[in-house]
Amino acid sequence: MIPLYSTSQVKDLDNFAINKAGIPGIILMENAAINIAEAILDKLSSLKLGDRIGILCGIGNNGGDGFAVARHLANEGCEVTIISLGKPDELSPDSRLNFNILKNLNHPNITIINYSSIKDIKYFNKCDAIIDAFLGSGAHGSLKEPYSSIIKEINKLNLFKIAIDIPTGLDADKGYGELIFKSHLTITLAGYKKGLFFNDGYASAGEILKKGIGIDESLLEFYHTDDYLIEPEDAFVLLPPKGKDIHKYSAGKVLTIAGSVKLPGASLLTSKAVLNIGAGASILAFPKAGKELLAPSLSEVIMQSYGESEEYLVPAHIPSLQKRIDWADVIAIGPGLGRDEETQKAIIKILKDNPSKKFVLDADAIHALKNGNYKKVKLNNSIFTPHHAEFSDLIGIDINELKKDLLNFGKHFAQETGAVLILKGAPSIIFNPDGETFINSTGNPGLAKFGTGDVLTGVIAGLFAQIKNPEDAAVCGVYLHSLTADLLEDKMTEYSYTASDIINYLFESIKFLRKSFA
After folding, report:
1. Which three-class secondary structure state does DSSP give residue 7?
2. How confident is the model at residue 19 (pLDDT cuts 50, 70, 90)?
3. Are 402 and 391 in contact, with CB atoms under 8 Å apart?
4. Sign of the CA dihedral with 14 first, then 17, 22, and 28 last
5. From CA 220, how far away is CA 211, in angstroms rounded?
6. Domain limits, the chain
7. Res. 361 pLDDT band, cuts 50 70 90
8. Do 52 and 40 contact (CB within 8 A), yes or no?
9. May I ask the CATH architecture of the domain 241-478?
10. Contact 37, 69 (CB under 8 A)
């Protein structure tokens, strides 16, 4: 796991270097600038871009980084145009010092424009790349003028964009911003800020590189963090072992209660994924009235039909399913069940009547627990798998409010219920009852298709039945599911692969991890 830090923790490291170690802030800025300039030159070279660079410099130390970076880039032959937002006497001390160095050097490759109006953005028109050194990680809240107008115009330019530390407009702790510099590359300093890796940060930061400021960053290890980025090794070590004496019932038994006559496909995807991730037995509970819809597509999965003429689950069907519920190590429930009032009652009854069973809840099962119903059942053996809209509906808040403080809402739910929460999205985030979060590092836009969430439910249930630990099953399952999508993107592009392809290609993600670490 890669630890992710708050801005205050990284700021504390900065303060330690200055106040305890005695390193002047200007030295830290210079160290950062050298590393940033080197990273930028490497990236521009690899992309075969030109060397005409525009830099937006604010009045704080982030702007100071920009002035210092400009000097190093110019010394390497780049043609640098700076738009400086503040007057010299408005700059922070270290920023002013670097500004004055540029003025005193009068470098032939550097042009400094003191910002006067939005028309000044024209000076960037001939640049190959733009560097955002406006605000940095200490900024919070909505952008004010002229920052907002400048960022809007810069985002329109078809240039390679680089952010120093944090894209302007992003809350580095909450991963949220109403208007954010759209970066292709973010060079963050000292430690990884958590807001870069989820929500608006994930969408706006682009590739993320961490560069040093000239002090021992292992000092960050002394700071407690609850937030982590999942690495491939984490998924590999959680793969369930397959002993020589294993048999189909010791390899994990999953009952999938999913699907209805109107919505049969989701149940098929979930129950098949259970087996393809290594569980030994997969049984699908499905209405007898629609049995013929799925029977031709089921081979290894066993169907347990219920009811007579009913096309969906109702409470009267539960007694006929109880033997299978008792048999299962894990019950996956929800995909395609529908939202008929009787079905919703049946879901709640199953959960209430079986408080010691392990559940993976998705889709319509999550819907049944809204309006506070999730507080009325025991869920500490459960894994929830909602997407953002389902989760905001479940806990009763507007989705826009959810985005503004995503981690805290997720942590509160997991701690309140004792359940593991997988908040599906780009990227997916896992929350455990101890208040920790694990942010996925795999996945691509091709996952935004019908059925991929149903497959994830099956993958999680299958692993849960084998691993037994809900957090471990969630971490391993989310990573493998999205890693499979990444391998398929390389093979088929993100346009073409489907949910069924993910099921059939899961073996490649396991092979990939084994080749990498075994």
Report:
1. helix
2. confident
3. yes
4. negative
5. 14
6. 2-229, 241-478
7. very high
8. no
9. 3-Layer(aba) Sandwich (3.40)
10. yes
- Answer whether the bond into residue 427 is a cis peptide, omega within 30°: yes
**What's the token pair of residue 359?**
């559940």
Q: Which two tokens stand for residue 445?
A: 């836009």
Residue 288 contacts residue 262 (beta carbons within 8 Å): no
Q: Which amino acid is at 15?
A: N
> How is residue 262 annotated by DSSP?
S
Closest CA to 271 of 246, 294, 244: 294
Provide the total of helices (H) and of strands (E) in the chain, helices listed first. 18, 18
Predicted confidence at residue 296, as pLDDT, reads: 80
Residue 353 backbone dihedrals phi, psi, to 5 degrees: -80, -10
pLDDT at res. 14: 84
Are the beta carbons of 282 and 270 closer than 8 angstroms?
Answer: no
Cα–Cα distances in angstroms (integers) from residue 291 to residues 23, 254, 257, 304, 440, in the given order: 73, 19, 14, 9, 37
Question: How far apart, in whole angstroms, are the C-alpha atoms of residue 185 and residue 350?
Answer: 49
Distance between CA atoms of residues 168 and 55, nearest Å = 13
Extract the tokens encoding 484: 């499979």
3-state secondary structure of 68: helix
Give the CB-side neighbour count of residue 360, counting CA atoms within 13 A: 37
pLDDT given at position 518: 77
DSSP symbols for 76-129: TT-EEEEEE-S-GGGS-HHHHHHHHHHHHHT-TTEEEEE--SGGGGGGGTT-SE
2-229 topology per CATH: Rossmann fold (3.40.50)
How confident is the model over 258-308, as pLDDT tens digits? Answer: 999 999 999 999 999 999 999 999 999 999 998 888 878 888 999 999 998
Q: Which two tokens stand for residue 22?
A: 């005695």
Q: Which two tokens stand for residue 353?
A: 């009547």
As a whole-number percent, the residues of the chain with pLDDT over 70 amount to 100
Q: State pLDDT tens for residues 407-455.
A: 999 999 999 999 999 999 999 999 999 999 999 999 999 999 999 999 9
Band of pLDDT at residue 11, cut at 50, 70 and 90? confident
**What whole-number distance in Å separates Cα of residue 516 and Cα of residue 293?**
41
CA distances from 159 to 52, 125, 148, 153, 185 (A): 11, 9, 18, 12, 12
Q: What is the mean pLDDT of residues 177-199?
A: 96
The answer to whether residues 295 and 286 touch, using CB atoms and an 8 Å cutoff, is no
Distance in angstroms (rounded) separating the CA atoms of residues 77 and 79? 7
Report the alpha-carbon distance of residue 173 to residue 193 in Å, rounded: 7
